[in-house]
Amino acid sequence: MNKKIKNILRKKNKSKVICLTAYSKNVASILDKHCDLVLVGDSLGSVLYNYKSTKEVSLDIMINHSKSVRMGVKKSLMVVDMPYKTYRNSKEALKNSKLLMKKTKCDAVKLEGGKRIISIVKTLVKNKIPVMGHLGILPQTEKKFTFKGKKINEVNKLLKDSKLLEKAGVFSIVLECVETKLAKKITRHLKIPTIGIGSSAFCDGQVLVIDDLIGLSKSKLRFVKKYSNVSQIINSAVKNYNSDV
Ligand code: KIV
Questions:
Q1: Cα separation of 191 and 89, whole Å?
Q2: Which single residue of 5, 155, 178, 218 could bond 183 by disulfide (Cβ 3.0 to 4.6 Å)?
Q3: How large is the average pLDDT for residues 164-178?
Q4: pLDDT 10s digits, 103-162
Q5: How many angstroms separate the Cα of 44 from the Cα of each of 50, 82, 228?
Q6: pLDDT attached to residue 70
Q7: What proportions of the chain, in percent to the nearest 5, are helix, strand and coil?
Q8: Candidates 31, 42, 194, 195: which one to mutate for ligand 1, based on the most atoms within 8 Å of Cβ?
Q9: Residue 137's closest CA among 125, 145, 129?
Q10: From the CA of 242, how far away is ligand 1's center (Å)?
Q11: 176 in active site
């Protein structure tokens, strides 16, 4: 097993797994010093391209950004999102994930879904492609962007899905906007680390979109703490440049 994945697994119940998204080399090389995992998320569709949803993100876009990120990531585990409609069945998933791994030299891929993708995950794992899972809000297919785990049927489904994914061989699962109580329960029940985004501090690690964290995007998500105001910093630098010229 990849040494970096082993390190992430070892953190379970010991220390938190630190993850952030990156879409290009310069930012990635900064994150690499402080993160265990850098994710080239298909959130780049809305963050960089103003797409209405991640459905519009293509494999080529993911490959290009991942190649750039690869140049900046040396120490951390680099994971790349498989875009919408690139893993509808095992054959398609294997072909596209192999291409992604070959072209970008990433360490692992991330797929959204539970029971529906179990045989796909098994095929990738069998073919030595490390897979990260993603449950809760699934942006590629979601109809309602609301927190998951309020209703009993959601609780049961997410618990079951998380166990199925673990059994299928994923090394970690992102929990996106899962209610605190459920995120805590899933985390306790799994041997692999859960990585939360808007899913409470009880997860084994956290992930956020870098542009939100540094105040470069206009996002106003209530679970995102802004650690900087990079928009303002760039604005004043460019204003000073303007007056100097
Ligand atoms: O696309 C993405 O950036 C993600 C994270 C927010 C988990 O999937």
A1: 27
A2: 178
A3: 98
A4: 999 999 999 999 999 999 999 999 999 999 999 999 999 988 899 999 999 999 999 999
A5: 9, 12, 20
A6: 98
A7: 45, 15, 40
A8: 42
A9: 145
A10: 36
A11: yes
